[in-house]
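Customer escalation, tier 2.

The customer says the design service returned an amino acid string that "doesn't look like it belongs to this structure." They asked us to rerun it and document both sides in this ticket. The original structure tokens are below, unchanged.
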């Protein structure tokens, strides 16, 4: 796993690392048993303070996602992935097609990010259950 740090984002660096690990866990890039890069490796690749890396790893440990093994490193403890988000899932394929159409329409990264954020906010703004078949429909 390679970390990317955006120093202009306004998001704390350790939170960027936490978010990237969680994203990798959701997409199945990282799986239980995988070792995260050492703090030294992350520092060499990103030029950030080692304490920042350790803070991110402690946060992931607090959430039960990773576990440190003295002398061996930090390892993934549990996954956040779902089959619906896998690289070969129909949802992912449909999203990739939508992204292609958005780029062909001339939208840049910020435009797409804004559209997706708005759609996510609208979809999840009601606190009810997610759309889908009700229990009565599946019984």
């Amino acid at each position: 796993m390679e970390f990317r740090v955006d120093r202009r984002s306004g998001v704390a660096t350790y939170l960027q690392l936490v978010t990237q690990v969680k994203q990798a866990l959701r997409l199945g890039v990282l799986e239980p048993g995988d070792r995260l890069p050492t703090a030294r490796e992350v520092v060499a690749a990103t030029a950030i303070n080692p304490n920042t890396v350790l803070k991110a790893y402690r946060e992931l440990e607090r959430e039960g996602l990773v576990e440190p093994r003295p002398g061996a490193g930090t390892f993934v403890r549990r996954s956040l992935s779902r089959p619906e988000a896998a690289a070969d899932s129909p949802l992912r394929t449909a999203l990739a097609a939508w992204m292609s159409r958005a780029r062909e329409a001339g939208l840049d990264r910020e435009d797409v990010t804004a559209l997706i954020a708005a759609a996510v906010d609208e979809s999840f703004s009601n606190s009810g259950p997610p759309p889908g078949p009700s229990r009565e429909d599946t019984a």
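Tier 2 assessment: The sequence is consistent with the input. Confidence is low (pLDDT under 50) at residues 134-139. Helices lie at 13-27, 39-46, 50-62, 90-104, 109-124, 135-138. Sent an explanation to the customer and offered a walkthrough call.
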